[in-house]
Design brief:
With 444 residues, the chain is an all-alpha fold. Helix content is 80%, strand content 0%.
C-alpha cells in the first residue's frame, strides 16, 4: 500500500523539475504545459471519491490491483508520448487510476491493524509516501540531468510490480464496504464541476483577473459543485455521504489535509522552478535543494504516529500546524530576499510540521467511521487532498501573475506565491484548534 501511494505522490511533484525538458521535447504550447501539471491533479480530485465507492462495491483489493495496473500503463504512455497533448491525456489517465487505488489502499491499511496500532501504521503508510512527494524534484532532477525525462515515468514500473506481487503473496482479505445504488447524475456533476472550476481558476492566472470568460467558467464550476453537494444531502443513498462531514473532527481532519496538500504540491513544483529560474540551480541541484523539506518528514512522522496512539490527534496536529505556519513565514522571506539558506530553514520547519500533522489527520479521519464506510470516508478525505492540491496550484498561478511579466516570473511573483502559503497554514491551524477534539474519538 505504501508503494502505491508513493507512486502517486512522486508523480504529483516529479514533473516540476522535468517540465522544461518535457515541454521542449514534445513542443508543448502554454496550455498543454499547464494541463500536464494540473490534468493529473484534476483527474484525481474528480474521481477519487468515486474510486473509494468502487472499492466498497467490488472489493478494496480488487480496486487496488485495477488501479495499479492502469496507473503503470498510463505511466508507460507518458514515457512514450509522441506529442504534448498525448502526454496530457496520459497524465489524466494516471490521475484516474491513481484515484482508484488510493482510497482502497488507505482503507486496507486501517482494516489491517487494531485500533491501538493505527497511528503507527498510518505514519509508515503516509510518511514514506510523503518522502516521495518531497523527493520528486530530487529524483526528477537526477533523471533529467544524467539520463532523460522519460525515466521519471519508467520508475513506476518496478514499484507497481512489487506492489502487485505483495498483494498476491500476502493473500489480503479485507471487509467489503456497504453496497449502495449509484446516482449517475451526482457522478456527472462531480466529474464535470471540479474540472470546470479548476480550469476557470487556472485561466484567471494566465489571462488576468479581468477576464470575464474565465470568471464565468469558475462560477459555473462552483455552481455545479454546490448543486452536487446539495443533492448528496437530499438523497437517501448519496453517491458520496457528505453527512460524514457533520462530524466536526472528521471535517477538521479533511480541511487540514486540504490546506497542507495545497502547500506541499505548490512548493514542490514552484520551489523547484524558483531555484532553477531565479537562483540558477541545475535540475539536480534544485532536487538537492528540496532535502531540507524531506529530512524532517522522515524523522518526525513515526514519532507523530506514536504520539497519536498515546494522546490522540489534537496534540500532534497543533504542534505540526504551528511548525508549518512558522515555516511558510520563513520560506516567504527566503524567496523575497533570494536567500536559499533562509528558504532551507523554512522548508525544514514546514517539513517538521507536515511530519507531525498529516498522518494523524488521515488516521483520525478514517478511525471515526465504521469499517464498512472507510472506503467512502477515505474517498472524501482524498478528494479534499486532491482538490486542495489542484486548487493550490491554480491559486498560486493567480497570485504570482498579479505581477505583470513579459518573460520569466520575477522574484517578487514567487514571493507572493509563497506568501499565499502563510495564510493557508494559518487557516489550517485555526481549523485544527477549534475542530479537532483533545481526546481520541471512539473507533471500531
Amino acid at each position: 500500500m505504501t508503494g502505491s501511494l508513493s507512486m502517486i505522490m512522486l508523480d504529483s511533484t516529479i514533473i516540476g523539475v522535468a517540465l522544461p525538458h518535457i515541454q521542449k521535447s514534445l513542443e508543448m504550447d502554454a496550455t498543454a504545459r499547464a494541463w500536464s501539471i494540473n490534468g493529473y491533479l484534476v483527474a484525481m480530485a474528480s474521481w477519487v471519491a468515486l474510486g473509494g465507492r468502487l472499492g466498497d462495491r467490488i472489493g478494496r483489493v480488487v480496486a487496488f490491483r485495477i488501479g495499479v495496473v492502469g496507473f503503470v500503463a498510463a505511466s508507460i504512455a507518458c514515457a512514450l508520448a509522441p506529442s504534448g497533448w498525448f502526454f496530457v491525456a496520459a497524465r489524466i489517465g494516471q490521475g484516474l487510476f491513481a484515484a482508484t487505488m488510493q482510497p482502497a489502499s488507505a482503507a486496507i491499511v486501517i482494516d489491517s491493524f487494531p485500533t491501538q496500532q493505527r497511528g503507527r501504521a498510518m505514519a509508515t503508510y503516509a510518511g514514506i509516501s510523503l518522502l516521495f512527494l518531497a523527493a520528486g524534484p530530487l529524483i526528477g532532477g537526477a533523471f533529467v540531468e544524467y539520463a532523460s525525462w522519460q525515466w521519471c515515468f519508467w520508475l513506476n514500473v518496478p514499484i507497481a510490480l512489487v506492489s502487485l506481487s505483495l498483494t498476491l503473496a500476502l493473500q489480503l482479505h479485507v471487509p467489503r464496504g456497504a453496497l449502495r445504488r449509484t446516482d449517475w447524475l451526482s457522478a456527472l456533476l462531480l466529474c464535470s464541476g471540479i474540472p470546470i472550476f479548476i480550469f476557470g481558476m487556472q485561466d484567471i492566472g494566465l489571462r488576468g483577473v479581468l477576464s470575464a470568460q474565465t470568471w464565468m467558467s469558475t462560477l459555473i464550476g462552483a455552481a455545479i459543485l454546490f448543486t452536487f453537494a446539495r443533492r448528496q444531502y437530499q438523497l437517501a443513498q448519496p453517491l458520496i455521504d457528505l453527512r460524514l462531514l457533520r462530524d466536526r473532527g472528521f471535517l477538521g481532519d479533511a480541511l487540514v489535509l486540504f490546506f497542507l496538500q495545497a502547500i506541499n504540491v505548490g512548493q514542490a513544483i514552484y520551489g523547484s522552478l524558483f531555484m532553477q529560474t531565479v537562483l540558477g540551480f541545475t535540475p539536480f541541484q534544485a532536487g538537492l535543494g528540496s532535502l531540507p523539506l524531506l529530512i524532517p518528514v522522515l524523522v518526525i512522522v513515526h514519532f507523530a504516529g506514536r504520539l497519536y496512539d498515546r494522546r490522540g490527534p489534537r496534540l500532534p496536529l497543533l504542534i505540526g500546524l504551528s511548525f508549518a505556519t512558522l515555516g511558510t513565514l520563513v520560506e516567504a522571506g527566503g524567496v523575497y530576499y533570494l536567500s536559499y539558506p533562509t528558504l532551507a530553514v523554512g522548508m525544514f520547519l514546514f517539513g517538521t510540521g507536515c511530519g507531525f500533522a498529516m498522518s494523524p489527520a488521515n488516521a483520525d479521519a478514517l478511525g471515526r467511521v465504521a469499517p464498512q464506510q472507510r472506503g467512502e470516508a477515505s474517498g472524501i478525505v482524498q478528494t479534499m487532498r486532491q482538490v486542495g492540491a489542484t486548487t493550490g496550484i491554480a491559486a498560486m498561478v493567480i497570485v504570482m501573475h498579479l505581477i505583470p511579466e513579459t518573460g520569466e516570473l520575477s522574484p517578487l511573483a514567487f514571493a507572493l506565491g509563497f506568501a499565499l502559503h502563510i495564510g493557508l497554514t494559518a487557516t489550517a491551524l485555526i481549523c485544527g484548534f477549534f475542530m479537532i477534539q483533545p481526546a481520541i474519538a471512539a473507533r471500531t
